[in-house]
Amino acid sequence: MSTSWSWYVIVLAAFNLLGCVWLLWWTSKRRPGDPKPEETSHYWDEDITEYNKPMPRWWIQGFFIAIAFGFAYLFWYGGWGTYSGLSGWSSQAEHASDKQVWDATLAETFRPYDGKPIDQLANDPVALNLGRSIFANTCATCHGSSAQGAIGYPNLTDDIWHWGGAPDQVLETVLDGREGVMPEWGKVLTGMGGEHAVDYVIAYVHVLGTPGQSVQNDFMAAQGKKLYDGVCVACHGVDGKGNQAVGAPDLTDNYWMYGDSKESLRQTIVNGRHGVMPAHRELLGETRSRLVAAYVWSLSNPPAAGATGTTPKAAP
């Protein structure tokens, strides 16, 4: 806080408290010429009279005591601008102290799960409940309370993983985050194939995602394949299966994070997409990240009934 703001706070606080003192003093005395308390000339229903009597002295003294307490409070806890107060107390120090206590409590709660593999934690009901709670507090904002995602946010309950669904890959995603970038290809494609180039690529992408459909019977898709092979194949692969190493999605399944309508695909191709999964290593720490990763992994890898262990499912 700057010096000018500090003095502003000091003057404002002192003005309010001293103003209350003056107001109480000014209104607590009767002066020559004041009408008697019963001579207000305010009557209702002929026999109801309004009086103007001063407050009882004990009540006024109570106000003065409250004001004195206010001055003492500001001097003790430091309410005068940058003045730290006689007690040395600060909300920041109290928060840090409370945080230290609760961090120790949390550390004790999570200690049994330190360093445990994700698939092992996924078989522990207590660990899963902890992971579910962490997910609800941290991840549900984007992925939804049911973890089924939304437009632009992936569904975590299916078996489709753009960055890999193995336990260690899911943990890496939670700890260090992911950044998926789909470049803007509108101008490049238009320069290669004319004004309808984007529509050609959209047609081919739709063919990739439709089992049994061939480009041989679709002129636009056939033109789009040529453009796809020249631009898109580097990330999405020759067969459109994608590349988990760079987060390039599989174009042959029926899952579209941004929608599969022509308008949505056009926006994706022309303007690109930039999706960011924030890193949670510093926010949650490694153990809590393991617990929430185990919960997320368990959503698409439920343990078999009666199984005592779990075998990680191969990343799709």
Automatic annotation (TrEMBL):
One annotated GO biological process: oxidative phosphorylation
Record-given protein name: Cbb3-type cytochrome c oxidase subunit
Binding site for heme c 2: 182, 232, 235-236
TM segment ranges: 6-26, 58-77
Places the protein is found: Cell inner membrane
Matches recorded under PANTHER family: CBB3-TYPE CYTOCHROME C OXIDASE SUBUNIT FIXP
Keyword annotations from UniProtKB, A to Z: Cell inner membrane, Cell membrane, Electron transport, Heme, Hydrogen ion transport, Ion transport, Iron, Membrane, Metal-binding, Oxidoreductase, Repeat, Respiratory chain, Transmembrane, Transmembrane helix, Transport
Ranges where the Cytochrome c domain occurs: 126-209, 219-300
InterPro entries: CcoP_N, CcoP_N_sf, Cyt_c-like_dom, Cyt_c-like_dom_sf, Cyt_c_oxidase_cbb3_su3, Cytochrome_c_Oxidase_Subunit
PROSITE patterns referenced in this protein's UniProt entry, alphabetically: CYTC
Organism: Lysobacter concretionis Ko07 = DSM 16239
Pathway(s) served: Energy metabolism; oxidative phosphorylation
Known role: C-type cytochrome. Part of the cbb3-type cytochrome c oxidase complex.
Cellular component, GO, one term: plasma membrane
Keyword ATP-binding attached: no
Subunit structure: Component of the cbb3-type cytochrome c oxidase.
Cofactor note: Binds 2 heme C groups per subunit.
Cofactor: heme c
Major site of localization recorded for this protein: membrane
Record-linked NCBIfam families: ccoP
GO molecular function, one term: heme binding
Pfam short name (any one): FixP_N
Family: Belongs to the CcoP / FixP family.
Binding site for heme c 1: 139, 142-143, 277
